[in-house]
Fold each of these.
Amino acid sequence: MYSPDTFRDCVISQIDLLSEGKALEAFDQFFSDNVTLYDNGTLIASNAHDGRALQAKTLRSASDIKGSIPDLTIADDTEICVFRDHSSYAGKGKDRHQTNRLVWQKWRDGKVIQQQTFDGTKMETLIEGGILKSPDNLGRRRG
C-alpha cells in the first residue's frame, strides 16, 4: 500500500540516482507518463515521452556527470519536494558546465506528476520567499 513513507522513500531514491549523475534513470523510474514539466513558468513538456527527449538531448553531449543535490525538503502531507540542483558535467568541448537551479516536484502514487525548475532571478525570489522551508507554497500559488 502506498503511504507517506513510500513517498519519502521514492523521493530519496530519486535523489540518490540524481546524485550519482543518473538523471535519465531517475526520470524513467519516477516520472508519470502524464507528467507536466515547466521551466521558469513556461510549459516545456506535457508528457514523459517529450520530457525524456528534452533531457536526453541535453545529456547526449554530456560526460563525466557529477550530481550534487543540496537543500532537499520533503512535504509528506502534500507529496511535494523541492531541492537545489548543482550538478555539473563536461560538454562537447570538455568544458565543465555547472547547473544552478531549483527543482519543485508534485508527486502522486510514487511518481512525479509535475516538475517546475527555476534559475536566475525567479529561483532567487522563490528561495528568499522561503520555498525551501515550505515547498507547498508554490503549489498553492499555482493551483
Amino acid sequence: MRFTWFIRAIWLLGGCAFLLAGLREICLRPTPLVNTGGGKQWVSGGFQSGGTHSTTVQGVLPKNIESVGSYIEGEAWEGTAKTRWRPAPYGRMRVCVAGYPRTPGCALRAEFRLADGTVSRVACEIENPKEQWMAWDFYVPSYANPATAFRLVAEDRTGQPTGWVAFSQPFVPVSSLTVALYQSAQVLATLALAMTLVWLPGLLAAQLTAAAELRTAIVLALGPLCLAVLGLLLWLLSPWVRPESLGAVYVLLWGGLGVWLWRRGPRWEMDPFAQRLLAIAALCMLAAVAKATYSSGPEGELYGGSVSRTLAVGNRSDARVPFYTSLAIELGLAPNSAELEQYYTPWTFFSRGPLAGLAAAPVVFATGGRPSAAPLEGLTWEPFDATGYAAYRIVMIALAALAIYALFAVLVPFVGGKWALIGGSVFALCPFVVHETSFTWPKLVATAWLLGAFLLAHQRRPLASGLMLAFAYLFHPMALLWAPWLALWAMARAGTSWSDRLAAGTRFAIVLVLVAAPWMAATRLPVNLPTTSAAGQSLFLRYFALADWQPATLETWWYTRCLNFSNTFFPFWLYLKNGALSDINSAYHPAGPLVKFAFSWWNTLPLGMGLAAWAVSLIAIFGAVRRFPAAVFVLLVGPAVLLTAYWGVSPTGLMRECGHPLLAAMIGLAIFWLARTPGWLASLAANRAGPWLQLPETFLMLWLTTLANPTPPIVEIKSLDPVWFAINLAALAAAALLAARARAA
C-alpha cells in the first residue's frame, strides 16, 4: 500500500510540471519602469524595435519587456536612442542588453538627475553579450544626494561587424530568491514527471506478464521507447507543428498513465525487495538532480557557469550531445543538414545513438523548454533554464538510473531478492555510478539495456537478447563491444548440441544486425562541413589502432594499453604515477592536485567502486574463478581485455569511456559468489554498515572539489545552494538507510 501511494505521489507531483511551466511567465513577470505601448513610444532616436541580429536569442529578456536596437538592415547604421526622463525608483534596476556595447563607438549608460540638479552617469560595463540578451543590473543613487529621475542613453557610432547594441525597457527584477524558489519547484516537478514517463509505463505493463526476464525488459524498455517515438514524431512534424503547441499530447500521456495507475488498485505484484530497490533508485535520482542544481562545480569545470555545465573537469563535452536533438526539433533541422552538423562537428548526429536525445525531447518541450541556436556555453546557468537544458539533464538522470534496477533484476534469479538488493544498492551508491548519473551521457542507460540483454540470453531468449543489445547500441555505440560476450553466453545457454548453439547465435546476430545495420549505414552519409573530421562512427572503429590519439606503432600501442590497464585497475596509480598526463586537466588551464586526484573516481575501477567495495569484490572474484571460471572469463576477464585493447586513445583509464558494464559485471559476479559461499566475507558484505561505509567516498567525490573551488562562477540564482546541498546529502543518506534496513530483513 505504501509503495502504491509513493508512486501516486510522484505521478501527481509530475503533473505540477505542466502547471509550473504554464505559469512561469506570469509568476516571474517584471513590471517595466517606462511607458509601454510598442515601438518608440518609450524611447526616442533612431533605434528600432527588433533591431537585433537574426540569431539573437531571448536569454534573460522577459517576454513582456520591449526592446530596441541599432541593427537596422545590418551593422552599418549609426545613431542614438534615449528614453524619457522618468521618476527614479529605489534600489536595484535591470536593463537587458544585447550586441556589443563595449565596442569602441558603441555605448550604453544610465543617467540620473540628482536632487541638487546635477546628472551622474553609470556606464554599462558588462562583457559584450553578442547575439543573446544578458542582464545589466545597477543601483539608483539614494544617499545624501539621491536621484529624482533617470533615463537610458545608447549610441552606435561605428559600422563595424561588431558595431551594434540593443537594450530593453528598464525594470525592477524579480528577486533572485523568488526566482530560485520557483525554478526549484520546477526542478522537483520535472524530476517527478521524468520518473513517471521513463519508469511508470514499464512498471505498469510488467504486471501483465509472469516471465521475470520479460518483466525486466518491459520495465527497461517501454517508457524510454514511448518517449523516443514521441520525440521522433515531434521531429517529423516540426516543419508544420511547433513542439510547444502539443501541450495536450503531453498532458494526455501523463493523464493516461494516471488513469492506468489508479485503476489497477492499491496492490502491486512486486517483491518487497524490488520496491525498496526502486525507492533507492528514486533517491539516487534526487541526489543527482540536487548536485546538478547546485550552482557551482570544481575549479575549471567544463562550461562552468553556463546552462550546459558538465559538473566535472576535463574536455568531455559529450554530456550535452543528446540535447542537440531537441534543438533540431525546435528549429526544424534535418539530421544530416549543415545547420545541425555545426553543433556536432567534428562529429555528426549519426556518431552516437539517437534514442537518448529523442527520449528527452518530449519532456524538454512539455516543461516549457525552447532550445536556443546560441552556443550553450554562452547561456548563463539557472536552476531551471528557459532553453530546456535542465529538463533534458533530469530526463537523462532518470534514464541512467535504469541501470540500478537492471542489475538488481539480473541478480534476482541467481541469488534471490535480498542479495540482489545488496548488489543493486552497492552499484547505486558507488562514486562512479553517482558521478555518471549526474554527468548525463547515455552510457549508463546503454548499460541497463545490456544487462537486460544478458538476462534474456541467460533465459534462452536469444532473439529478444539481440534486440535489447541493438537498442543499447542506439543509446550508445559502446554497447557493441559486449556483443561477442553476450553471443557466447546465449550460445552456451542454448543446449549441449552445436546445432542448437549455432541456431541461438544466429538468431541473436540476425536481429542485432537488422536493427543496428540501418543506423550504421546512416553514419556513412556525406558530411557538409570541412571541420567534420570524425564523420559517423568512423573514428570509433579506428580506436583499436590509435595510441594517445595518434596512429599506433607496435611500441606505442603496447605502451598506451599497459598504461591504460594500470590506470584503470590499480588504485591510486593514475594520480601517483601518471598525474602529468594532459587529459587529467581542465580544458582551460592546468588542474591542481585535488582536481587531478578526483579524476580517479571516474577513470579507475578501485576508487570508482569505492575502496572497501572493491576489496571485497576482488576477493570474491578470486573465489569465483575457482568455482565459475567460464562465467568470470566471459563476463569479466574477456571484456576487460577487449576494452583495454580497444581504448588507447586516452590512456587515463577506461572506466568512464566504456567500463560501465564492467563495473556492473564485477559487482554481479561478486554477489553471485558471496551468496553461494557462506562465511566471514559474505557476512561482511551483507553487514548493515556496508551502505554507510560507501557514503564518505561518494560524498567526497561529489563535493570535495566543488567546496574547495576558490573561484566559483558568478551566477545570480544561487541563494538555495545550501538547500540543494542538504537535499543531496539527505537523499543519499536515505538511500543508504533503506539499503541497510533491507540487509537486516
